[in-house]
Amino acid sequence: MNYDVAVIGAGPAGSTIAFYLTLKGLSVCLIDKKRQIGYPLQCAGILSRHIVKLNDLPERLILNKVKGAFLHTDNYTLNVQKDYEAAYIIDRVAYDEYLFNRAIDNGANFINQKAINYDLDEGEVYLQNGEIIKSNVIVGCEGYNSLLSHHMGNTQSNFNASQILVKISKDTINKFRNSSKNNEDYVDTYLREDILPGFLWIIPIQDDLYRIGLFSNDSHKIQGSILNDFLNENFEYELIEKYKGFIPIFDEKNKLVDRRGVLIGDSAAQVKPTSGGGLLLAFDACRIACEHIYKAVDEEDINYLNKYQDEFLDKYLKEFKYQFKVHKTLNMLSNDDFDYLFKKLKENDCEELISTYGDMDNQSVIIKEFIKRGLIFKIIPKFLFKKVSKIFGF
Question: How confident is the model at residue 226 (pLDDT cuts 50, 70, 90)?
Fold first, then answer.
């Protein structure tokens, strides 16, 4: 079976690149071992409003819209908000299904098999049933622990992530927030030294349902214990469902392109270092890769594929490096340091500043604003000045 492009993985990235390439008139197959696309859920399901610039999102798949956040340490809470809806809480399983059906409806051929090996020189995909798919380009969208990435010689590492779907009364949530308002359009994040460099989140869905989760270096078992303790200490709740997943860690030394192979999304670890979110990055990578894949096929020159890696890194590498600096800084802080940081943020009226300049897709914006205004020296514990200055180069 011969195709212009073989896409491995029918998740959101795979389905999106398959759709884009069929729009270009290329023959595309979409290979995935799953019988039910979208399962199991491995995502917090919150996307910034910029999603509408990068991909279709039907209104019916939006479960909630949020405009603010409560940011917590053990003893302090910051309240930040936008004047507009800043993010959407989505039905992630249904969204995966929507993107998959869109690709199939536009001409992509679905092959319900597991890819077990590749020949990147010949463009061959070996399936578990013994069949061989021949293509000009192989696009790896397999997600975490990508086999295609392994064939490229990449080193892959990850954080673990755990999440629980629970039912909690709004009064209980407001008590946790120390708020008398019924803020259904707010998310919560919690900074704790025992889960660094990750954090804990509370995401409101609808009808008293919340996704509560975290990512960290801990095992899923330890994360489960942390979540159970957190819930038992703070809420009366009804447990609905548990999920677990993996968040790949970006490494600029890894290849996005090798011979006839291309990586997109979690397979390429195209994930924000600070938040673990990657869907918007993956969609933009699909847009970038599509043009270069089309040229490589149309002009029968796979060297065009290398321009995808160049363009993606030109656009995002600087931001990634900045977010890794934030990681490095947070890793030095204890729970007492986080309390000190939040206390100083309140004393310096920084909630309004964060509300104005905070961007869930580009965290470097607010950090640069703190540095420019000299606030960074007012909020960081003094004994860390030299270390933080060295990390950020000021």
Answer: very high
Give mean pLDDT, residues 132-152. Answer: 95
**Sheet strand arrangement including 87-90:** 46-48, 87-90, 62-66
Pick the closest to residue 377 from 393, 363, 389 (CA basis). 389
Burial classification of residue 299, based on how many CB atoms lie within 10 Å of its CB (0-12 exposed, 13-18 middle, 19 or more buried): exposed
Q: Where are the beta strands (DSSP E) in 33-76?
A: 46-48, 62-66, 68-72
All residues at 6 or more sequence positions from 34 whose CB lies less than 8 Å from its CB, including other chains: 10, 112
The predicted model scores a pTM of 0.93
Give the pLDDT band (50/70/90) at residue 180.
low
Tell me the C-alpha distance between 394 and 385, whole Å.
10
The whole-number pLDDT of residue 380 equals: 83
Contact 266, 154 (CB under 8 A): no
Q: Which of 364, 193, 192 lies closest to 273 in space, CA to CA?
A: 364
The residue type found at 378 is K
Distance CA 128, CA 144 (A): 20
Q: Which amino acid type is present at position 317?
A: L
Sign of CA dihedral 356, 332, 391, 381: positive
Q: Which two tokens stand for residue 281?
A: 């990055």
